[in-house]
Amino acid sequence: MWVLHNTEESLEVAVGGRFQLNSVGLIRRLAALDQGIAVLPAEIVAEDVAQGRLRRVLPDWEGPPTPVYAMTETRLLPAKTQRFIEFLKERLGVHTHA
After folding, report:
1. How far is CA 7 from the centre of its chain?
2. Which of 4, 38, 84, 89 makes an SS bond possible with 61, Cβ 3.0 to 4.6 Å?
3. Cα–Cα distance between 3 and 15 in angstroms, integer?
4. Angle ∠(24,67,41) on CA atoms, nearest 5
5. Residue 85 lies in a domain
6. In the predicted structure, residue 26 carries a pLDDT above the cut 70
7. Are residues 42 and 77 in the same domain?
C-alpha cells in the first residue's frame, strides 16, 4: 500500500508486483532498469532523473517523508561529525528530535 499526498488530499493506493523490497538502493536500481515504478525521495534519484534513467510519472503527488537517523555513541560529538549532521539537516530538510 502506498500513501500519496498532494497539496489538497491524501490517497492510499494498493500496489502489487513481483518484488517486495526494503532496500532503497535496489528499488532505485530496478526502477532504472525498467522493472517497475517506485516511490523514492527526489534527493536519492536526482542523478538518475538528470541522466534520463528515471522520470517522474506523478509530478503532483509525493510519498510520505523518509526518516533519517544519525546515531552516535555519545552526545559529545567531534566537530567533523557535528558538521556532517548539520550538512544533512540543511540538505535534507531534517527536523531534529533529541
Report:
1. 19
2. 4
3. 10
4. 45
5. yes
6. yes
7. no
62 forms beta bridges with 5
Residue type, 55: R
Q: Is 19 exposed, middle or buried (0-12, 13-18, 19+ CB in 10 A)?
A: exposed
Stretch 20-46: mean pLDDT: 91
Cα 54 from Cα 29, distance rounded (Å): 10
SS3 7: coil
pLDDT for residue 94? 60
Distance of CA 81 to the CA centre of its chain: 22
DSSP type of residue 62: B
Per-residue confidence (pLDDT) for residue 96, from 0 to 100: 57
Q: How confident is the model at residue 62 (pLDDT cuts 50, 70, 90)?
A: very high
Which one-letter amino acid corresponds to residue 56?
R
Q: Which three cell numbers stand for residue 55?
A: 522520470
- Is 40 a member of any domain? yes
Whether residues 10 and 44 fall in one domain:
yes
